[in-house]
Amino acid sequence: MLSTRRLSLLIGVLSILNKHLVAEAGWRPLSPSWASFRSPLASSIHQRREQHPPEHSPLPHSPSLLGLGNVDHIVHRKRCLASIVATSFRGGESVIDHHEDVLGDVGPDVDAEEQMPTRSDDDAADDDAQQIDCSNKDTSTKTGKRKNKDDDKNDDERYSRQMYALGARAHKLVRSTTAILDGPLGGKIGNSAAVPVDEVGIDGADGFEGLGTDPINSASVKSESCGSKTPSGLLYEIAKNLALSGVGRIVLVRDDDAESSIATHDAGYFDGSLDDLGAAYHRAALAEISSDRNGSRGKRDAESDHGSNEKEEGDSDFDEDELVSSLDDGAMLLAEYIQRLNPGVQVDIVPRAELLRLLRSDNDVNGEEDYSDDGRDDHISLGINPVVVCVDRSITSQLEMNNACRDQERSSFKPHVVPFISVETAGVHAKVFCDFGPNFVVVDEDGETPRSTLLDGVKENPSDENADQSSEKLYMVKCLEDERHDVSKGDVIEFQGEHSDDHSIKASFPKCQVVSVKSPTCFIVKEWDGESTNQSANNPSDSTPMISLLEGNARSFSRVKLPKQISFSALREILQPTEESIATSNCCDDDTLFTPSDLDKSFDPLRRRAVMTSMAVLDMFVKKYGRLPSRASDGSKHKRTDMERFQSLARKMIKEEDEAFMSQQWGRLTTQFVETCRAKFTPVQALLGALGAQEVLKAATGLYNPVRQFLLYDCDEVLQHPTDAGGNGTENSSPTSAPRTGQSYILGDHTSNKLARSRLFLVGAGAIGCELLKNLAAMGAGTGASSTKRGCLVLTDMDTIEKSNLSRQLLFRDHDVGEFKSVAARAAMLRFSPDCRVEAHTSCVGEEEDGPFDDDFWSSGCNLVLNALDNVEARLFVDGQCVTHGLSLIDAGTLGPKGNVQVVVPHKSESYGSSADPPEPDIPVCTLKNFPYEISHTIQWARDLFNGYFNRRPRQANDHVDEMAQLEDLTIFGQLLIEKLGDDAAIAMAEELGEDLGPFPFIVGNADSSDPEYVLAVKKVSLNWAIQQAHRLFFVAMDELIQKHPIDSVDDEGAPFWSGARRVPKPLRFIPLDSEEEEVSAQQVIINERIAQFVSSAARLRMESFLPLGRDDSVPSLITPEEALVALQEQAKLLNKKKKPKEILHNLSGGGSSGDVNDTLSLILAKLNGAKIGASFLPRLNLADFEKDDESNGHVAFVASASNLRAMAYGIPPADAMETRRVAGRIVPAMITTTGLVSALSCLELVKLLKGLPLEMHRNAFVNLALPFFAFTSPVPAEEVVGVNGKTHTIWDRITVKGSAKSPTQSMTLSKFLKNILKKAGCGEEIEISSLSYGPYMIYANFLHSHDEELLETPLLDSVRDAVISEEEGDEIATFDEDPAAEEKQKAPVDYTAEQKAMLSKLEQKQFIDFSVLVEDGETGEEFELPPVRLIKDKIPKHETDEGKAH
């Protein structure tokens, strides 16, 4: 950190700039008054400037030591100097240290405009990258250095999953966005106390060590989160979502003028004492930040103990009061918390008045401002991509801010509109409003990649169908057989194909517009006359492209995405407010102003009017009474309740002739609004936080359809009592009682207490799991206890934290990478709710897993399950356990902007496994091997190639090396290969072993990576191998395919073989540029480059297979494309010298001359000859597991190079590394906004389950934030299956069989059990049991065992054990009756294998066993399935395998 002297010098330089550079550059340094609003760092700078004026500061260092150079050079650094004070919060570094490096980095010859380029319309994101550098936005490291390539890589890894949802273009725009958040910040009003720089350095989170016994402990933290000091949970939620999404900058708006009418109005509009989510965030932020600071102080104390107690002049001692004061500032607290969520986000704090002045000024808010005439000495810029968000603000405040955003529309400098969004919640109701200006452009409405559909043909449409049209020609498009299109009327499509068979000439087809859709495989189009790069579209005289299309040169088609312009209206234009009222009636009748959020509620005009009117009346109520309405009377002499006051104001707003006001539904809706609007409901806040943040991203990027313009949401069904639907109701809290939380205010104490005492099982602590934990902490889950029950939250996740998790998992920080998710999540959740009881496990949940989740746990360890899983297999297992044990289940999942929530209600709804999505179609092997037509086919082929080359084959070599080294003659080995694999597979394996083990005799020296000679030999062998593979894969294999199926060949039905999905490949080979035999075309140059890329990546991975693990990192294994190119040229020269090119070609394919080989064994032995010699060295090859997230390992580079080479050969457009990584790594796109939304909906369903609401009150959700689209449907009732005697049952029903004193389950025979089943099921004498099964094991079948008295008299549990063991041993049928010796052997003690012991142990630990039973009607022969039959075990039987139990 800079000393005080150097700091004084720095401020002196700023003074020089202020005096000498204002006239030249129009730039003014920030004033102390502005700096004081930004951070205690800036305040401390101002303080030290007062204590050490520049003219009196000693200058031991020359300006050049600070990197300033002379005064002439200062001009070129003015922007970087300005950012010293302008920058506020920088996580993970000292701000002053950072700028010391910045100043040193800027050379004297660098022009200022080069440092801060202006934004162009075409490349705003790229321009902003340099702005970010100069303003020090990136702070991903603690070095204090400017953004470098390593930081970019960290960014790519952090946001990798989001980039697959947004795309690279939109992600760059997000990183350049300034999100301006105006909402209740909590804490005290006014400036924060100045805190010494040394004590308030805003570093990244260094670890959570607990609150300990420091002055800021859990008790004090908890006390800070009550009353007016509590911030808006919705504000924190939006800030969290934006920070994790990676917006470049967040500006927090603070009302420093507490006496203004707007500030007073907004203060009464929000009651922090009933905001549970805000209180939880406040606790978490205080705990995390105080822990970090106390940890830093402890580190300093430790250094002092070791003698490092020297202090520079001007440094102050640690002041606990100043620390508490700093944390008591709501804006400061949120700013520091955002930095811990994402250190790469810049956070600033601005006074509301200053923000309004900037928005209303007649200049460009996106660029420079002219202060030459206003006399101000500060400079504020909102960045190149600002978006303003009002959170939990009154309509009056929203109107003021929206008007200011609209003022830029009348700017004489550059007319435009700053996008404006407002979000607010009131109890169970919520509202979103968006105004993006009159000319907002949506670049991509849905974010979906248009699907390429194979084309059968295009022909002119019959003339009779053209009669209804103008003179335009129409054409009929037909899809290939088994292909279905995805186009609709009005869509524009484009065709793909080639003019020539060798793919050298790309076709140019006209774009067409869909006129009508005939069927899923056929539609009618016309030439599109819109803007297009294709000149023929606007030049009808040029019919060449259309003729080419009609001749069948097009292979496929896909939709074209076109930008769409949307016009928004300002809030004032819609509401038309006056001093007395706000006109909501007119706007409510305009459906175009409302985006549906519920297929039922959103289309109810009365509900819409009631909610909009209630929101407007709420603003009037607060303006008149200075507070939010309450359920009880205020005790005044008028004795009017707030409900009566509210209704009176509503009556004045609505026309007297409006009958809606008199309806019963209106009264119910407005009453429940008034009764709950004072409090905040955590799930609704979380839902609105996701929607609000997503709209910010839409405004910033033009990606996805925005909300137009209002979106209303409510979950008033949670206010329903079971008695209202015939259930057992519970009393709500008394209206006059003082609720402890906002949740209790809305739902009552009974529901809140029930949640606090529940044992919830959360499976998964990833993105959805973290959001659920945060919501549950705010809702008080796991904090209650009664005489018989203690609330608890059981959490499990076996995964560890990766860098890519940090962009959507709010509980984790950079220092958590590598830790178990469940353990880190538990520590983070306790910051939100210190009283919560959390059990964290790292065990996997599954059928084959041993761990804490046994029958005891599922029976009594939890009473509700929340799924936060990422795979179907685990979901199905958890679902099966919930059905077996009668537990409620809530399952949530996301895919980019899409999300779904399913609630499973015991004994009422279907289960998760009752319905399944259709499986994704597998790519046929023949398509992968010979006939690819999509880039996904070539990527999957390359992915399989990677596994074969660098995992399967090294493992295969390692498995056989010892055996081959010991054998003197490989004849027996070859014969075994033929017997096991067959001729072709044995030959292929022998060839692979020869390739993988044969090179070792030619690698000189010891296997020592520090030996340059050894490394050089490995590189040479690897390059030769890679060249051979390239020739084999992309020339020989394709040439052989064409020879087998010539271009003019036909299939069995007489149709051309190369048609439809089959594309003729073009064999690719390397041709040197100086080749004398062939002319090298421009396309061949590209082919050469692609082959060199493949050879370099393949040789690098091959080299790593040979080099020992743990080698010195200084030894490079990277082989550049230039080195590969040189090796290819040398190999080509050697080939040209050969006299028999065909034989050489065959050798390059990895085989040898087979003219003298008379049989398969001889060929195998010939191929194994080299492998035998190599095996004698006993090598061990390294295996490579495909890792998609590490760019340095070369895995994705290999797959991309191989895939794109194959795509080039088949005329398929190539894919970049990002798309290759997504397909090859099977990456699921993820966004924090979608995650937050489904987690909020899950918590709503949790509340309904705890309240015991009827099935029709629950909602399964299907959402797509891109459209946006919301579908809420009641869960499907459990399917009823007709059984014996017409009785029905569902998956939830069971037939229970218990033992008795006379017949305990341990000794209950199979015959007795079968009789009990028939009795319990109420079957008549004509019904008999057809089969009895335990899982996959058959226990009894009447056609086999009906007369087997021995089996029928065997104890049932013994029969089950025998079935399980016999399945493991194989399906062998014992014949002990015929072999006395075998019978005696059977009586001897059995020596079970470890697997058998584990299975028996797991079986004996079960409290019950479920059997599947089929019964048969003896008279009709009809079979019926009974409900699962459950045998309740009266005790855990002892068995001889007890000593083998693992637990």
Largest sheet: 8 strands, mixed
Class derived from helix and strand content: alpha/beta
Question: How large is the count of helical segments?
Answer: 52
Give the overall form.
globular
Average pLDDT value?
77
Stretches with pLDDT under 50, minimum 5 residues: 1-149, 189-227, 306-318, 367-378, 532-541, 725-731, 1139-1157, 1368-1378, 1437-1447
Distance between the termini: 56 Å
- Give the quaternary arrangement of the chains: single chain
The percent of residues in helical segments reads 40-55%
Strand content: 5-15%
Task: Going across the biggest sheet, name each strand in turn.
Answer: 18-17-16-19-20-21-22-23
Extended strand count? 31
**How large, in whole angstroms, is the Cα Rg?**
37 Å
